[in-house]
Structures are given as structure tokens and as C-alpha cells.
Specification:
By secondary structure, the protein is of the alpha+beta class. The chain has nine helices and 19 strands. It comes from Bradyrhizobium nanningense.
Amino acid sequence: MNAETQQRILDAVDAGFEAQLATTRDFVAIPSTRGAEGPCQDMIGDLLRERGYEVDDWHIDVDDLKDLRGFGPIEHDFSKARSVVGTYRPQTNGGKSLILQGHCDVVPAGPLELWDTPPFSPVIKDGKMFGRGACDMKSGTIGALYALDAIKAAGFKPTARIHFQSVIEEESTGVGALSTLQRGYRADACFIPEPTGGKMVRSQVGVIWFRLRVKGHPTHVAFAGSGANAIMAAYHLIQALQKLEVEWNERAKADRHFKTLNHPINFNPGLIKGGDWASSVPAWCDVDCRIAVLPGWSIADHQKEIVACVAAAARNHRFLANNPPEIEWSGFLSEGYELTDAAAPEAAFGKAFGKVYGGMPEDLVFTALTDTRFYGLNHGIPSLCFGASGGEMHGFNEYVELESLKKTTKAMALFIAEWCGVEKA
């Protein structure tokens, strides 16, 4: 790809950026929390059809996925769950095929009064777009779509098959991405524009979600000593799991990538419910937890360690010793992923990055997870993850930096052109 072609594509990104932001605003404005992603999938389907892509929009059947590597259990109403894929098929086959993927699900906004502006009424100010999902990762998904638009607007068309995928469940199980693979979609490489601050994810953690179900013995609080407080017992188990977190972080010091980080394994008791009355000793407590694992660590083996840790802590508790807690696997059962055997797509992206940013992209050792794992681990598809800068993901006043988003879109457009090849339209 010559310099003139590159510049025409870069100029097309600039020319289309205001329209890109308008589409991003519309996308962010949809409150696509778990189970409510349908309107976002409708929007993506419409955008793809308008552009002439062959659209596959299907309901996800959990029974088709439950035996596949990386499947995590679904607990909520999944009757409206859908994946959407738009396929571009070239007239001339001259390049390498590509999956462009983004997730449209977002985490809950939390107390609305703690946001400076409403989370689903996106606002642009000070060079940033604010809103739930603006950073993680709706701006990246729309950026990938407009990167394809820029190639067309510059007068070119790709010479390889491209699958543009919009998935759900990235924030809790990943079965949306898994469904696209079960459906049969494959390519020579995958690119996911998660917000990485302009760095390439080299290695990422996996995640295990589990629920502690703790029993107590209710009494009137006036006679609390004769009862057993399930909430306090749950705290006893949480303290034991914090010690397991310390052990796993010591183990992480042997990992060639994660040894560079001080505390890569994070345990989080993220959701707690318990008790029935303020003046009654609580008879029950459920705690939903998340803990990370590193690439190469067995999910099954680390589930056993969690079970053993909880059992040992229960044996040392007056009530739980005879009333052991239960553990439920409540979402992610996801392996870590290290990007390997990806020299060709990395070289193609390196050319694109150098043109836009200068130099070569830095590696990112990522203490969160992305859908890249399914493509790489399940089917050997090298899966790159690179995106814009932003902040407050999963927090209040989430935002994406617009100049960073523009640069990311340019890098994606040049990468697509380099990897897939282009010819005059």
C-alpha cells in the first residue's frame, strides 16, 4: 500500500469523524445492560444493512454452547439474547480475512445522582465523550465501522472477507463471542478495539465468578449471642479468600509478563445480599465474587483451590463448621490469554501504527479480560486488542478521549487496508 493510498484513507477518517461521533452518541445513548442489549443489536444490524453488508442476526441458544471451551453459566433471562454479524465478501480475493469485533453490553450505571451528567445521555466536553459504555467499548465498535467507511470513502474496497461482529455478554460470560465461533465464523486474524490506551494487549488475565451462599441461625438481636450471623460469617470467608489472593499473587511472580506488575491478581467481593430484618440476626447471605487467573492456569484446578479455601475457613468457624457454605459458579469461567503466533497481523498493524503514531506500539499486560481469548485459545486465530484512551470504566463519569479515538480509527483503517488488501472501487 503506497503513501498516497494511506493518506487518502487517513483524510477520509478526518472527513467522517463528526458523523462517527454522532453515531457513537446514538449508540452510547442506548442503555444496553445485561439482558437489554436488543436495541443496540438492532442499531448495528441497521447500520450494516445500510452499508450493504450481508447480515446474520440470530438468537443465541445456550444449549449449543454449554460444552464449548470457555463457556460460563447463564443465570439471567436469556430469551432475547442475539449476536449480529455483518459480512463483506470481496469481488477479488487478494488479502487475508479479518474479524472485527466489539461488545455492546455495558455494566450497570450505579446511583445516577453520582454522575455529573446522565450516563445514557452522552455529552461531549473538554475533548471527551462521557457516558456509560463510551469508553468500554461502544466508541471502539463504531470506530471499526467508520474505519471501513473511510476505506470506501477514499475510493477503495478490501480484497478479503471481513466479518463485523457485535456481541453481548462480554462483561459476564463471553458467550456472545463464543456464539459467533459456534456459528462457524473464522478468519485469518481478529481485531478487537477495546480501550487499551493506545497499547497492544500482550497478555491478559482470565476470570472466575462465584457466589458464596452462607447460612446463619436467626434470633432476635436482643439475644444475638444465641444465633449465628450469616453476614458476619460471610465476612470470615472473604478474609480467607483475601489470603488466597495473596498466595496467587506470589505465584504470579513466576509469569514472564505479569511478574512486571505488583498485584495482577485481584479478588473482589462485588455484590452482597443478606438478611431479612435489621433487628433479626441474618439467616442467609449471598456474596458474588470475582477473582483473576493468569494465562496457562487451569480453571478447574483453581476452582478446586477456591473450594478448599472456603471449606478450610468454614471448619474454623463456630457455626459454619456444621453448616458449610455453598459455592455456585455464577458467570465467567475464563482462561487467561497470551498473544502468540501473531507475527503477520502484528507486522501489518505495526505499519499502520507507525504511520499514525510513529514508532511501534507498546505492550500492555492487562489485569482485565477481553473476548480475544475465544478466538486464540479455541481456534488458533491470532487476536489483537488495541484501542483508544479513556477513563472511569465501570465507574462514574466514564469517558473516551476523542483525539485518541480518531487516531485509533485511523490505525484500524490502515491495518484493515494492509491486512485485507485494497483495490480501487
